[in-house]
Task: inverse folding
C-alpha cells in the first residue's frame, strides 16, 4: 500500500527525498573521506618504519621559550646509547639538518644536508644503491664523505659517475662515496634532493655545534616502543637536570602519539562536517513532513473510508508513518550509494594529488549503519505529526471532505 | 433483544457557539433480519441517525444499544473494531480506492480484521461472486460503471460477514436500471443470508424494497409503518 502511494506520485516523491539523499550522501562521504585521509596519514607514518621514536628539543607547547629550549646534544646521545639506561634500543640515529650550497665544477645549488649515522641507513632504508655507505669509523672521526640523492647526482654530474669525485659544501670538500636511485618521499624529507654525510661532519664543518634537530630511536618491536620512550624521557630528565616532568624541555613522540593526535583532529573535523550535513537532513525532514501533510489532506476521504471500514486511529497513524519511513529509507539508500561513489571519487583525487603514499578506499561500515538509522529516524520524527493528524480525523468529516 | 435500539437519541452540532439540534430524541428498534428504510427530506437528520447506528459518530445524549452492547461504554478503538466486524457500509459515493483492483478493494476491511491473511483471497472472491462481479475481479475499480462500483462496495461491506449493512442512498448516483440491480442484491442478502439491512433514502420507490419504513422529519420520528406492497427481487425498479 505504502509503496503504491509513493509510486503514484513518483516525481513528487523523488523531489521530496532529495534532501535526505543529499544529507545522507554528505554524511557518508565525510565519514569515509575522513577515514581515507586518516589511513593515508597512518600509512605515511608507518612508512617511516614502525616502532620509531622521535626525540626533539623543546616541549610541544608552541611558546617562545621552546624556541630557546636546550638543544639535544652529543652528551644526550651518549647517555641514550647506554643500554643500562634505555632498554630495547635497536637503532639510534641523530638527525642534524643543514641547508647549504653544494658545488661541483662550475655548477652549484642549495640542497638539504642530512647529517646522521649508519643506524639511520637501516632505520629509514637509506642504504645506497651505488658505491658504499659511510662506516661507524667515518661517523666517529667526522670523515668528509657524502652520499648523493638522485636529483643532486643528476644536477651536478649528469650521466657521469660521481663516486670518488670531490664536491664542496659551504667551504669544505667532501668525497662522494655513494648515491641513490629515485626514492619515494617518506615523511618530511625528500631524499632525492638531499646530501647525506656523517652527523659529526655536519656539526664540525657546517654548523659548528654539537646539537641535533632530532634523534630517531628505533625500539626492538612495537610492543617495546612505550618502554623505550619512557626510558628516554627518564634519561633526558637526568642529563637535563629536570625533576618536574611538566617542565620537560624536550619531546618524545611515538607513532602512536602521532596517530592519536591525528585521530583526534580528524574526529573533530569529521564531527563538524557531519553536523553541517545533518542540517540538510533536518531540511530534508521538513520537506518530508510537508509532503506527508499534503498527502494526508489529499487522501482525507480515503482516511474516512478506512476508518468506516474499521481502521483504528493507530492503524491510520501507522500507515502514514510507514509511508514516510519508506520515503526516507529510500532516500537513505540512494544517499548511501551516492556517498560511497563520492568518497571513491575523492580517493582518486587524493591519490592524484599526493605522491607520498596510496590512499586505500574505505567506507566505514558504521557509516552505512548510521545512514540507515538516521534516515529511518528522520522518517519517524518528521512523519509523526502528519500521521497523528491523519489519525485524528473524524470519520464522518473525512468522508464528506471535498 | 433487538439488534438495534435507539432511546431518546439527540444530536446537537455546535459550531462558532451556535448550537444546531439535528436529532431531538429519536427512539426505535430494529430486529435482527429486518429490512428497514429510513426516509426523510434532506436535512431531516436521517444520515446522522445512520452515522450513530454505524458507530461513526456519537450522540449528544440518549442511549444506543447494538446487539446488547451500549455505545457509551465503548472506546474509539472499540468503535473501530465493531464497525469492522459487525457492520458493512454502502455509501452513495461508493468510495473505492482508485488504481486498485476490485478484489483489493473488497479485501480492505480484512486488513483491519483479525481474519488470517491466508483466508483473505477466498473471502474476497466469495463476496465478489455474491454481487455477480466475478468477471471483473482483477479490473481497476475506478474504471467500472457506477452500478458495478456500487456492487463492489456491497461486496466490500459483505466480506467480513456483518450482522447489518447500512446503505446510505446507495442508488442516489445510479441510473434506475443499475439502481434496480443494486436493490435486488441488497434484498437477496436480506432474504437469503438474513443480513439486516438499513437503507437511507429519500425516494419512496427505493424505500419500498424494505418491509418497514421509518420516516424522519425535523430530527424526530414522523411515522413508522409496515410496507404493504413490498417490492420484490426482479420487480425491476422502472425496468
Result:
Amino acid at each position: 500500500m505504502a509503496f503504491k502511494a509513493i509510486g503514484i506520485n513518483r516525481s513528487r516523491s523523488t523531489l521530496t527525498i532529495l534532501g535526505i539523499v543529499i544529507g545522507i550522501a554528505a554524511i557518508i562521504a565525510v565519514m569515509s573521506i575522513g577515514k581515507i585521509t586518516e589511513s593515508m596519514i597512518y600509512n605515511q607514518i608507518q612508512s617511516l618504519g614502525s616502532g620509531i621514536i622521535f626525540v626533539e628539543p623543546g616541549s610541544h607547547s608552541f611558546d617562545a621559550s621552546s624556541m630557546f629550549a636546550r638543544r639535544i646534544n652529543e652528551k644526550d646521545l651518549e647517555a641514550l646509547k647506554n643500554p643500562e639506561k634505555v632498554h630495547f634500543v635497536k637503532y639510534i640515529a641523530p638527525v642534524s639538518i643543514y641547508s647549504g650550497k653544494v658545488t661541483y665544477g662550475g655548477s652549484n645549488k642549495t640542497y638539504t644536508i642530512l647529517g646522521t649515522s649508519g643506524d639511520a641507513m637501516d632505520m629509514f632504508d637509506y642504504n645506497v644503491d651505488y658505491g658504499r655507505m659511510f662506516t661507524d669509523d667515518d661517523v666517529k672521526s667526522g670523515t668528509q664523505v657524502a652520499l648523493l640523492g638522485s636529483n643532486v647526482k643528476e644536477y651536478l654530474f649528469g650521466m657521469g659517475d660521481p663516486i670518488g669525485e670531490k664536491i664542496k659544501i659551504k667551504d669544505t670538500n667532501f668525497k662522494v662515496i655513494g648515491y641513490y636511485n629515485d626514492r619515494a618521499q617518506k615523511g618530511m624529507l625528500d631524499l632525492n634532493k638531499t646530501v647525506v654525510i656523517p652527523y659529526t661532519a655536519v656539526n664540525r664543518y657546517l654548523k659548528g655545534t654539537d646539537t641535533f634537530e632530532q634523534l630517531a630511536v628505533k625500539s626492538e618491536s612495537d610492543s617495546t616502543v612505550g618502554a623505550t620512550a619512557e626510558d628516554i624521557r627518564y634519561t633526558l630528565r637526568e642529563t637535563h637536570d629536570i625533576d618536574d616532568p611538566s617542565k620537560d624541555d624536550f619531546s618524545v613522540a611515538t607513532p602512536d602519539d602521532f596517530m592519536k593526535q591525528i585521530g583526534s583532529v580528524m574526529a573533530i573535523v569529521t564531527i563538524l562536517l557531519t553536523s553541517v550535513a545533518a542540517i540538510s537532513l533536518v531540511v530534508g525532514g521538513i520537506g518530508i513532513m510537508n509532503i506527508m501533510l499534503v498527502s494526508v489532506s489529499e487522501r482525507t476521504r480515503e482516511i474516512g473510508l478506512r476508518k468506516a471500514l474499521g481502521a483504528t486511529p493507530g492503524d491510520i497513524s501507522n500507515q502514514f508513518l510507514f509511508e514516510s519511513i519508506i520515503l526516507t529509507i529510500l532516500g537513505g539508500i540512494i544517499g548511501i550509494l551516492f556517498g560511497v561513489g563520492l568518497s571513491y571519487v575523492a580517493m582518486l583525487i587524493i591519490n592524484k594529488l599526493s605522491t607520498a603514499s596510496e590512499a586505500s578506499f574505505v567506507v566505514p561500515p558504521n557509516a552505512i549503519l548510521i545512514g540507515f538509522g538516521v534516515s529511518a529516524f528522520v522518517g519517524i520524527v518528521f512523519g509523526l505529526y502528519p500521521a497523528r493528524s491523519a489519525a485524528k480525523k473524524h470519520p464522518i468529516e473525512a468522508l464528506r471532505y471535498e | 433483544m433487538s439488534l438495534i435500539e435507539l432511546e431518546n437519541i439527540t444530536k446537537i452540532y455546535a459550531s462558532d457557539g451556535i448550537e444546531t439540534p439535528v436529532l431531538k430524541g429519536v427512539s426505535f428498534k430494529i430486529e435482527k433480519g429486518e429490512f428497514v428504510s429510513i426516509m426523510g427530506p434532506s436535512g431531516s437528520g436521517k444520515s446522522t441517525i445512520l452515522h450513530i447506528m454505524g458507530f461513526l459518530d456519537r450522540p449528544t445524549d440518549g442511549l444506543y444499544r447494538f446487539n446488547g452492547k451500549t455505545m457509551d461504554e465503548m472506546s474509539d478503538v472499540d468503535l473501530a473494531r465493531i464497525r469492522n466486524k459487525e457492520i458493512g457500509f454502502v455509501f452513495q459515493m461508493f468510495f473505492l480506492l482508485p488504481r486498485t483492483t476490485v478484489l483489493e478493494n473488497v479485501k480492505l476491511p480484512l486488513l483491519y480484521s483479525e481474519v488470517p491473511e491466508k483466508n483473505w483471497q477466498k473471502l474476497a472472491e466469495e463476496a465478489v461472486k455474491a454481487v455477480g462481479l466475478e468477471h471483473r475481479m482483477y479490473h481497476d475499480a475506478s474504471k467500472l460503471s457506477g452500478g458495478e462500483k456500487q456492487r463492489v462496495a456491497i461486496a466490500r461491506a459483505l466480506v467480513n460477514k456483518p450482522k447489518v449493512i447500512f446503505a446510505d442512498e446507495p442508488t442516489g448516483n445510479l441510473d434506475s436500471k443499475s439502481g434496480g440491480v443494486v436493490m435486488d442484491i441488497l434484498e437477496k442478502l436480506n432474504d437469503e443470508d438474513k443480513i439486516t439491512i438499513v437503507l437511507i433514502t429519500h425516494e419512496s420507490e427505493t424505500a419500498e424494497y424494505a418491509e418497514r419504513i421509518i420516516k424522519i422529519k425535523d430530527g424526530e420520528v414522523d411515522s413508522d409503518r409496515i410496507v404493504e406492497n413490498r417490492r420484490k427481487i426482479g420487480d425491476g425498479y422502472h425496468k
Q: What stands out?
A: Chain B touches chain A at residues 51, 54, 56-57, 76-77, 80-81, 83-85, 89, 91, 95, 97, 99-100, 108-109, 111-113, 156, 160 (CB under 8 Å). The longest helix of chain B spans residues 176-192.
